Amino acid sequence: MAPKHESDRWAVSPYNFADSVRAEMTLPKQVTICDLTLREGRQYEGVNLRKEEVILVAQKLAEAGVPMVQMHHDDPEEVKEVKALDLPFKVEVLVHPTATLNPETCRHEVDNCLECRADIICMAFAVSDYNFGLYESMGKMKISREEALAKACEAVRYAKGQGAAVCCLLMDFSRLDLKRLLNICRSLADAGADIIRLDDICAPIIPAVYKHHVREVKKVIPNTLVAVHSHNDFGLGTAALFASLEGGADIIDAGVNSLGERAGIPNLAEVAAIAEILYGFDTGIRLEKMCELSKLVSDLWKVPVYAHLAGVGDRSFSHAAEVHYVLPEGDRWSFNAWAPETVGNKSRILWCTYSGPFAVRRKARELNVNLTARQTEEMLSRIREQVRWRKRTVTDTEFVELARTLGA
Hints:
The chain has helices spanning 19-22, 51-63, 76-84, 97-100, 103-115, 134-137, 145-161, 178-190, 207-220, 237-247, 268-278, 290-301, 357-366, 373-390, 396-405, and strands at 32-35, 68-72, 90-95, 120-126, 165-171, 195-199, 225-229, 251-254. With 408 residues, the protein is α/β, with parallel strands linked by helices.
């Protein structure tokens, strides 16, 4: 079915699907979203989940239709328990560079991943000029780049020999000479890697570079899947993922509520919605489960869902300016591009200095409060006064109480 710019849930630009626009893209036939909440999401201060909490999150990710989940090699028993649930997603286990630097350690971790039934083993390799020093500082090895690549290929061949599906994560790919990057990708693919993941580490890249590099990598390894991992250090994580998609990336990484190192990673709800609505992909993810999943993770992590977070935040579909309420009957799209129920959210009336009588009437109808024209004007005056002194919105309970004082 061809993607649609209009439905009962959204009304977006038809040019998203125009041939003249898409001709400049190299979109894959299908995209897989890999959720990193149970790996990157735990690299957040104060977070230390109990095993039953990990299992609960895994179950909720499965209910939301997430097709691929990444976990960490440090706790194989945890991976075993998630795999024992027989959930309908692939479990990728990241083997951190602290283990992959040393071939013997890497073999041991590969064996552990296989024992816990990981679907994919993702081995992280340090490749850029900045990261390469880790071989000496962490791996205690003085080694040339050629030797390091040979050992990485050896690790891939070992894992493939044990029957594993293998992903090779290339750290800090954009600060590596492109020719060298392409040579590494080709060598690892020839050694048997099923997926090459380009990891930006600290996001020192404009989106156009993601698109360009993914496209160049796809040229040299056309039969190998390409994944992209981005960060929000410059607030461009989501833009980076979709630039990568336009370059042909097959797998893109995201996490619930953007939780992760430093400024975090792209938000799962945003990424899934953009892929489905703006690009027309069927990701298999149940968008209507996004708010429920977001609230669960917020509760377990003890990190709030920030009100302005796209899709799942309380303000995502909410309006304050009066002009947003002065609309023809039945108009849904003048100030919205998608409906809140798409992701299990709802719209809310927000109060600010620009609020007007139409917003008051809308809220009164919503709360079954009957106001006369005079009472409406008085309510508006009092709401503005409350906002001025409280420095926050007026709650529904406060709205009803204010109406009572006016005799409504």
